[in-house]
Design goal:
TIM Barrel; homodimer; alpha/beta
Chain lengths: 365, 365
């Protein structure tokens, strides 16, 4: 492993956190999550779950029956209601905005259908170099203004109970969908496109980076307290391809997003933890459940917050097992510079009381 | 990372290789693959590709149209013909028997349908503790005798051109299918079963280990020169669960399979390379493309052969890029104690000339 531990480290953004105009952090009644991101000592680590406002919640399923997917994403009142469901029912220490990473390809003009049993299907996937090079920037305020409205409505409803996390897909992961046109085991069509037309791929990735930076900065101005970048398909790339098609864009996002901490989740890219820690301005790295706490800490060093990494399937264990494992996980990660979370989104078949047991186990640590 | 480098190491089985009654190795005209497994110096590393007798070959597709999947697996003449297709057309240094890991669940009485666009569907997946505990050993010679006939027919057809590799699914991966009933993104049903009924899960895993040992030993007696164990879903497990549900069974297989080298492929279990190298009797570890050569060597040490790990999607790159990358991959792994392969099975959409370019690039190294 290349050791970066002796190189000069970027200043971490959390150092700037309290100097920024985060007017809305003043009235937060629970700031455990932000403290953990800033590296401040906490009595216990904060906890939230990726996709915590999702299909395992009966209250969410009722709204899913009434409104289609993008109506749910685009209606500020529904965004606020859905985002707050787990806060009321499960009690995590942070809320994550209800939305989807595919709102960005949609803003770029790709229409998307959510097919049940299949997932998202994009109508006009990128199939040629020309099509890729023809992609033009978008005015985020105009095309994604509804997200900022959703953020304001959500913060009103949260009323300072917990911080609100904004998010975006990473450029590499968005390119995967935009070229492949739908979910895939290996996204080999998307990868082949990058290998055959690297120039066009970098054009798309660079454009997506510009949009992501604008989008996350707009979310922060609208009131989110931190942002997370989901590179869900990072692990499909080997280390060299990750350094070519993912890393430079993640790096730029952490440099150009201002005013709130940035959390990176490069799922499956265990090999990149060291680089992501030392060569980006991320405040935290979210990790999946294949990475042991000791390995993660060794690779990432001690000056960055780690988030994760309970195996989502493990929430299907009996409740006493969940309790024991959460305690042991916190013991291994340590209570500071650590945010308890899953290693990926919560599964739809998790019983609500298991999710609650997970959160409660952290609270009683 | 726990350092095992100072612990006493198991004697590697390749040391015994030439003492065993591998009568059929005498007449091999190309023994590069076996030399690499035994750690002997070679002029260039051997090369083969997982799923090299697969859907990217037009000659295979013709046979696929004529015979259904299990007919192809169960007819010795077809097994021999299909196994030899890539030897004739692409020229790798080893043949891998045409078969499927699911022949074992089939031998255990689970009927399986190969549904196009879906993959394998098992008719009676294990859904209860009682059903799991009721599983009984099988007589491998009787239930899987057709595989041994296929091996003999294949060796006749190969006529010593290259060694023949036998294989089996690993117990954990077989359990995944036997409980989940079909392929899955996360095999969360199978994992939940293990978490809820660990006793029953270990009964199934132990029984599958017994069968796998018998099965691989029978393959070796029938004439394969080495065997590979595919733990395709190892990477769905975190390190602790891997050590509980996968590792002990892989370990036992390497101890109880005699007379030929055993190669382990625990896909996605990068975190286990060190344990797999030091705590099993594997002759080689096959690795996926997320593991850099330097990391793999550092974790596995220098006394074991490594196999892999070109990204299968990378075969969709332009041919000159494939050539350059193969050369660089061999430079990084080193020519000895290394078998060139992909990091997973070849994809159906790979052009034949790209597969051939991959093999040729190794031959001209």
């Amino acid at each position: 492993m290349i050791s970066l531990h002796d190189l000069p480290r970027y200043d971490m953004p959390q150092n700037d956190l309290h100097q920024n105009d985060l007017h809305h952090t003043d009235k937060l009644r629970n700031d455990l999550y932000l403290k953990a991101l800033a590296g401040e000592p906490v009595p216990r680590p904060p906890v939230w779950m990726m996709r915590q406002a999702g299909r395992y919640l009966p209250s969410y399923l009722k709204l899913q029956e009434k409104y289609d997917f993008f109506t749910r994403c685009e209606t500020p009142e529904l965004v606020a209601e859905i985002t707050c469901l787990p806060i009321d029912e499960i009690g995590p220490d942070a809320a994550i905005l209800f939305s989807d990473i595919l709102v960005v390809p949609r803003a770029l003009g790709q229409s998307i259908e959510m097919k049940s049993g299949v997932g998202p299907v994009l109508e006009n996937p990128i199939q040629s170099e020309d099509q890729a090079l023809a992609l033009k920037p978008v005015d985020v305020a105009e095309a994604l203004g509804y997200v900022m409205k959703g953020i304001r409505a959500t913060n009103e409803r949260l009323a300072g109970r917990v911080p609100l996390i904004g998010f975006s897909g990473a450029p590499w992961t968005l390119l995967c969908y935009m070229v492949e046109g739908r979910g895939s085991k290996d996204f080999s069509k998307a990868k082949a496109f990058c290998y055959e037309y690297p120039h066009a791929a970098h054009h798309v990735l660079s454009l997506l980076t510009d949009i992501t930076v604008d989008y996350l900065n707009a979310q922060i101005r609208a009131g989110v307290h931190a942002v997370q970048v989901f590179d869900s398909w990072a692990g499909l790339l080997g280390p060299d391809d990750f350094n070519t098609f993912a890393m430079p864009y993640l790096q730029r996002i952490t440099e150009e997003v201002k005013g709130a901490p940035v959390v990176l989740f490069a799922k499956g890219a265990w090999y990149a933890l060291e680089l992501l820690s030392w060569q980006t301005r991320a405040a935290a790295l979210s990790i999946d459940w294949t990475v042991g706490p000791e390995y993660a800490r060794q690779a990432a060093g001690w000056d960055i917050t780690l988030q994760g990494n309970y195996d989502p399937s493990r929430l299907l264990s009996p409740v006493p097992v969940i309790r024991d494992q959460v305690k042991s996980m916190i013991d291994r990660f340590g209570k500071d510079r650590y945010i308890v979370n899953l290693g990926h989104g919560i599964l739809p078949n998790v019983p609500v009381d298991h999710a609650k047991a997970f959160v409660d186990a952290v609270k009683s640590y």
